[in-house]
Amino acid sequence: MTFGQAILEALESLNGNKMRSGLTVLGIVIGVAAVIAMLAVGNGAQATITGSISDIGTNLLFVFSGGMEGGPRGGPGGGRSGNNDRPLTLGDAEAIADPFAAPSVELVAPVIQGNGALTFSGENTTTSISGITPAYFTVRNMQVAEGEVINEEHILGRMSVVVLGPETAVNLFGHADGIVGETIRIEGQPFRVIGVLVEKGGGAFGSEDNAAYVPFTTAQARLIKRGALDEVDVIFVQAISAEAVPLAVEEISNVIRARHRTPIGYDDFTVFTQQDFLSTFETITGVLTIFLGGIAGISLLVGGIGIMNIMLVSVTERTREIGLRKALGARKRDILLQFLTESSLLSLIGGIIGIMFGWFIAFVVGQVAAATGNDFVPVVGVDAILLSTGFSAVIGLFFGIYPASRAANLEPVEALRYE
Amino acid sequence: MDRVIEARGLTKTYKMGEIEVHALRGVSFEIERGEVLSIMGPSGSGKSTMMNTLGCLDRPTSGEYILDGESVAEMTDDQLASVRNRKVGFVFQSFNLLSRLTALGNVELPLRYAGIAEGRREKARAALEAVGLQDRMTHRPYELSGGQQQRVAVARALVNNPAIIMADEPTGNLDSKVGREIMNLLLNLNKELGTTLIIVTHDPNIAAQTQRVIRLRDGELDPENNETIVRKK
Ligand SMILES: Nc1ncnc2c1ncn2[C@@H]1O[C@H](COP(=O)(O)OP(=O)(O)OP(=O)(O)O)[C@@H](O)[C@H]1O
Ligand SMILES: [Mg+2]
Fold first, then answer.
1. Mean pLDDT confidence for A216-242
2. Which domains does chain B possess?
3. Quick one: angle between helices B146-158 and B176-193, nearest 10?
């Protein structure tokens, strides 16, 4: 028998028991659809997160206080780090900005951060408040939709001015335009709105559209109290180019090590690059994707067991048929091929429908995400399609082999006598 | 003469746990090409067992068996399948047609396993015409009478042009009139194509139409009837 005939015959026989074939196929459909949809969601999450991290700029670095290793609190090295760690200060930021000490550094933007209540004529909202320097907007690549950004004069004068994110502006005023010049209260103190930022959308650090930016000196003096004078929470650094980032990390580390007099091999600060964020999040979303795919894979496996079950029933039911075919000259491999073709066809059909169905689910998830304002697009990858088609074909073969070989090894006389 | 079957000391023993059932206890005989032969004997005497052995559906426990020049005893399963396909056509008491397939599809089956693709349809058609079913080709078994079903089975048995057609109680499920028709059909095949016919039967009327009768009793050739009754036709 040729392969084409085998397929035709298998189709005929599957068609002969539509209900049963359909239910068996359904098991595979659900499995494959789940794999496709889950992988699509996982890949979509990864693409969204890594995309938003990429948006923050390839030549951006972050300096936090606190070491990476040794466990900050409670760990074995906790005692030492707890006592001797020095916070980052404005002085550190200025030292990093020194072009002779750190030639790979272009711009430095120290920030202190806190949360606060904003009010405007009865409306109030709580948002993050950042005390910043003019360099911040350049480093973070932020533009104002209207008004101006914080400048050197505001810093020197410790002026009570604020730049609002668009979402915060809407929360307070109901709209984001025409509010420059209004006076709002932050923690009860009056601040004049001098600018509203362009909308950016969600990012890796939460929405940056819901934020208020005030001059560093003003925040330090009036809004965000810190233990030590001049203490900053994070220093944003822009390297002169993306290629210079590793060099900049080295230079910044050396400068701060010297200023903090840290022991050899122990840093009380951490320099993070965009690449570090990327790889961290890629690991997390990668694990997430594998986890989701694995769960979906289990349902595919269950579908495969369904195929095996049905094929075993089918072999038993058709014992006489097998005996007859053997009497007419069918060899072992003819019978094997016949039943393997049936089980493979079941899983292949299930696989194809499952791919379309999974694609549809991913599409719906994307539509729901878009409707709820999330910038999230599930990605149905070629790899997922190949994986699940291959996997379902293998499952059809694997779970078909046992029933098929049982059929092929039946003794013709015994099979013909079977009632 | 040309011998199509040579059996020497065929035995078949079934083991059922402790008990051994001797279905055949050393049977020897020859059959000439073109002969029409019936096998008779009481129930349980080993007729079907012998038929299965002669038809290469099963191997003898011991003994020598040469079918159309090929020694069968040491063949592998697949070689046996090939011998069945090329040299033997079976007709069963219970027709054994595949209900999913049309008459034509059923008749085509042996050709499929022979690997014949070209002219398959035509050969199957010719076989069905030979048994007088030219206007029932696309009917399925459940749309045919018992006699018609058995005709399809006969067409299926002859389509590969085998050396022997073996029929195990081919008329057992049919009334006597239809049984005679099937019998005439088989005898005609023998006349026109020279196909050797072996028919297992309980019916003396059918045995009377064959040239030779082999009688079995308890797995042996019946000694009282002195091996065989030979009738000239
Ligand atoms: N698969 C088997 N396992 C065990 N014993 C068997 C098997 N097949 C046949 N036998 C035994 O072998 C003997 C011969 O059986 P066989 O079927 O050949 O008889 P038969 O002559 O065809 O009878 P009937 O006229 O009723 O069809 C019987 O005693 C039967 O019980
Ligand atoms: Mg019998």
1. 85
2. 33-59+76-230 (3.40.50.300)
3. 20
